[in-house]
């Protein structure tokens, strides 16, 4: 096992900070083992520090997984899947129900941890954990509805039907911005579908990975089930690459950038595995001339500033009809001036820090690029001098044709641009490589139905009079084009976590062939 230094800041403080005491409630200490393998906590890889983005101080230390830990875990996980898939689906749903109940008892400390380690405000941190609880509830009902079809056969005394069976092991690689909710979208469904789960959490949010896994592990243990049904690793690219290459994992769900997602997809495809990709977004809100301006402004504020602009569904482009352009911009600048920036755990704060120092540098470099390409900063645009990674929420007036508008700058930067016609607005909306979320503000039915129809938005999420972010779990979540094409959470997303067999059964004594073929 890796040696955790007794001279480290994390060891010395022993959670001496009063605001860290709650971590003990969810099984965390100043030093933690970072992989759960076959029911045992290990950590033979590098020792890393979890850092609070509000002050860049160490919260705790984590011993990550080594590649040997990974192999040991995968052997056990693959073996456990053979048992788990034979348990009736409603019984698997009962286990997921218990996971949801266990999460309910720790909702607030887990939400506080998300806020502390990731940097999103407390309301969003609690909301993220609630999202997993909601997914558990959804999955419990789903466990009794994994239905196939009976299909009429053209041949006498024959029956055709569909069977849905588990894949075996599902790999889940999650990102820092939703360090546990995306696990819920995948793991809750994968588990009721009869799959074991191997999870690699984000390298910069290891405490969330550990705390979540301890809750799931506790439920498995109380039900005398193998811990290897849910295997978890804290680690970096080496572990992620191992998952992508591993032929024991038929399906890999990856959340992250389009660049890395493409590499994951290519690796998985080389072994004929399946990928479920949730990648970059470059989401637009369109405000038509008949829009409710106050409703639109409130929605833009949440969509552009929430999670410090680090949601995949963050509104990055605001398209304003020329007749309301000035009014909306003035109102938006006014509400931006009122945004309280600070420690995300403090009441009333709407904008916490960016997640890392590197994110702060990307913000600075991105704004230089924006200004070079003709962007005019209407408000914000600066780093806030502090020990943390705080920046100002920023609104930029820029041309829709600027190259930088096609890219995803992961921070609270909103591009505003003008259009004249609905057709032009759709063209701008669809002009970027990404295709995740979109929304329009209007009251006209003919506009609404064109917007959600074949000649409207080309995104996976197409909203009307609500923000681009804040999706409910009941619908399938995902996008098109460079967003990856994956669908997670609700609707019929469960079908991606199972294999479908078409079965034809002959219960007669003759052998009629399809298409009327006579073969001797």
Class by SSE composition? alpha/beta
Mean pLDDT: 96
Estimate the helix proportion, in percent: 25-40%
Low-confidence stretches: 1-13
Instruction: Give a short account of the largest sheet.
Output: 7 strands, mixed
Provide a count of the helices. 14
Overall morphology: globular
Major beta sheet, strand line-up: 3-2-10-9-8-11-12
Using only C-alpha atoms, the radius of gyration works out to: 25 Å
Describe it.
The chain has helices spanning 9-13, 67-84, 89-105, 107-118, 122-142, 181-192, 206-222, 237-245, 258-270, 293-305, 325-337, 357-372, 422-429, 445-451, and strands at residues 31-33, 35-37, 40-42, 47-52, 57-63, 150-151, 158-166, 169-173, 196-200, 230-233, 251-255, 274-278, 283-287, 315-321, 376-379, 394-397, 413-419, 434-435, 437-441, 461-464, 476-477, 480-481, 488-489, 498-506. The chain has 520 residues and is of the alpha/beta class. It has a 7-stranded mixed sheet, with helices on both faces. Strands 15-16-17-14-13-19-20 form a 7-stranded mixed sheet, sandwiched between helices. Helix 14 (445-451) links the parallel strand 19 (437-441) and strand 20. Helix 3 (89-105) packs antiparallel against helix 5.
